[in-house]
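Translate sequence into structure tokens.
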Amino acid sequence: MKFRSLTGSRLGRVAIAAVPVGVAASLVMAGVANGAVPVSFAVSGSQFKIAASSLDGSGFSQYAGVAAEKNGTPHPVAISNIGTASLSDLCQSVVTDTPLGKLGMLISAGGGGNPATASDLQIGLTDLQGDATFGNIRIGVDASTVKTPAKGEAGGFAQDADTIKIAGLKQTAWSTQAGVFTLNGLHLQLTNGKECF
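Result follows.
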């Protein structure tokens, strides 16, 4: 992760980048123990993968949460909110074991210079990779005071930023929801287990 306007040295950027990742890992588990903010619907028993060549968004926040299955099984997640987002070369995949073997569903959209777009995007994720740049980031704010409409619980650790850009996005998640999700050039196909990455 790369942060602008926080430090001028490469070592400083690396050290600062380690803060959100390390803190998020420990505080997500603490948040689960304290009954942190849940994802607003029951999730399936399978995680899925999302990739994009680039994500460009505004109105970002992140805090600890829980994604629960219908039977009550909880899964700790980092809840990421993005007010508006565009995703180039979007790919989403999920693979399930069936009596016929591995069956996958692969969705692609947003190619050819016509990115997919989303508003009020919320993701319950467990892993995130890419080169990220945040504008006006605040790390360590109270989760109930983040600058997005969706907020965490009082006393919880959070971070927020006015803008977020991620190149080479790869993430694994339990849930995604949006007010509006426009998938330009949508292509959905069944596969024998092919994934985005």
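Note: The first strand starts at residue 48 and ends at 68.
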